[in-house]
Amino acid sequence: MISFLNQNFHKKITLNEISTIFQIDKFKLLRIFKSLVGLSPQEYLTSLRIENSKKMILENESIVNTALDSGFYDQSHFTNSFKKFVGVSPNEYRKSCNIFQDSSSLIG
């Protein structure tokens, strides 16, 4: 199931779809997944999406493309989720990463 989520995080995936694919009751799936991983399947998906979006932001991809390519519905949903998980907006994250890159080039 983890492998499935890792490979398909950019798609819209519901708990019902996961339970159908793996032929397990959705409530049982929730309990087992959370006890093993520490997150619900949806929280795990969101964390995968956020990690992917961080990489895309560092590659200077646009925020809109990053949001859609990472599996978020729209830029607003992405920005809210990113800020909740990371603590700053995607633009603030990009700026802080650029500051670190700029200062490392001054040192070297």
Radius of gyration: 16 Å
Q: Roughly what percent helix? A: over 70%
Distance between the termini: 44 Å
| CATH architecture annotation name | Orthogonal Bundle
Task: Please explain how this structure is put together.
- This protein has 7 helices and no strands.
- The chain has a single domain, classed as Orthogonal Bundle (Arc Repressor Mutant, subunit A), CATH 1.10.10.
- It is mainly α and 108 residues long.
What's the quick description here?
By secondary structure, this protein is mainly α. The chain has one domain: Orthogonal Bundle (Arc Repressor Mutant, subunit A), CATH 1.10.10. 75% of the residues lie in helices and 0% in strands.
Chart the SSEs and their pairings.
Elements: H1 2-8, H2 15-21, H3 26-37, H4 41-58, H5 63-69, H6 75-86, H7 90-107
Summary keywords:
Arc Repressor Mutant, subunit A; 108 residues; elongated; mainly alpha
